[in-house]
Amino acid sequence: MSPAMMKMWVSFLAMGMMFLSAVFIYLSRYKFKKKLFRVITAFVAYGLMIYAGIIMILIVFSGPTPD
Question: Membrane-spanning residues where (predicted)?
Fold first, then answer.
């Protein structure tokens, strides 16, 4: 697999993690009533969002790949 394709799949993974974090934040704020579930889902969501953001920054600032 070429480096460009690998970067594409890694960026798709990061976008999926951002989507999951949005779902987890929604569940944490509006659906869960127990404090423990709310804290756990919020913690996982913010962790996923931070990790996905770091991945996206690394992908963008690594620049274009050579042909």
Answer: 6-27, 39-61
